[in-house]
Write a structure and sequence with these properties.
Distance between the termini: 50 Å
Helix content: 25-40%
Largest sheet: 19 strands, mixed
Number of strands: 24
Structural class: alpha+beta
Number of helices: 10
Oligomer: single chain
Amino acid sequence: MNRKLNNRVWLIFTRLLGMETEQEREQLDEIAVPHSKEKTLLDEISAGEDYLRRREIIDGIDVEKELKRVMKSPKRRFSRVLYWGRVAAIVLPVLLGSVAVYVFYAGQQPVSDYVMDLHDVEPGTLKAVLVTSDGTLRELETSVNHIEEKDGSRIKVDSARLNYEADKQEPVRELIYNKLLVGRGHEYMLVLNDGTKVWMNSKSELSYPVAFGENIRRVRLSGEAYFEVAKDSARPFIVEVDKGFEVKVLGTHFNIKAYDTDDSFETTLVEGKVQVMQGDKTKVTLEPSEQMVIGRDGKHEVRVVNTSYYIAWHEGWFYFDDEPLEQVLTMIGRWYDIDFSFKAEGLKEISVTGKLKRFENLSVILNMLEKTTGVRFTLTGRMVTISKENNRD
């Protein structure tokens, strides 16, 4: 196998097993375009019963045991590429099967005669709408350019993020606000003027100044976002949410979930220290791995959590820990821009625990959930009906 082909197979392998880095994800997204051989391969081997069968086989492999068997010196340190290359040698043939050979070596023949009999939905994409200070709406998807603000600022735009970070800090005379809107079925990332990085989840919006002033850094969030705040002891960073709820930090990593439709708001601290405030009544300082939940009735609770569950979306996963099916499907619905309808109220409370990749097609996600919950999903257009497995009506 030549080097170029080997790299393409490697990118697909890392995607399917959830081992991809951000750079590898970008590389695969560039080549796995509609009607390409790579896209066809991904679609074929990541959906349906064959994929589930392969996953079951892979999950049963003792990778460490197999590595010791194939490596000449088990104690030797290997680079990441070499290490996972050996894993690939064990797992890849099982995962890909003969379809990989067919897709990559079909030459001028049709790539595949296989057509899914299930209408499918692709996962969300990197896309947002920028509302500038003069009210202009700009769709951000694949363009590579600069946007000129009325204060002379040049905003860098590419297919993955919006960058306000200034090469040279100038005194700010007037705060000029932009708003970033991320719809259902999308996510987006932006870098604020101070270097703070914000990853925005589906159905979210963030209002922020093009450049921060001298005393404070303040933004307003509706929805969900993961923040990596640039340290600046002279200017606290404040995230405002609904009903006087805000989070104050100096430099830290944290996640805020505050959808209008949710019964409560969550702040989950990964690194550093934050102060969560609700008006003048509540001021609570969180330590790493702590989460504060504020209900719409004003009551709050601080608890120690596994932060992995709450930032998994930012890393390309759905991660559920004994959560009701209705809540799980709400998250999935935002990402795939679909709606769900339950045929029986009792189905909403079925408990779900597990980890699923956000960049799979919807059919793969629903097939996994069917196997673990015992329900049946029926997709019609962009509506999914949930019924009992033995209900074929």
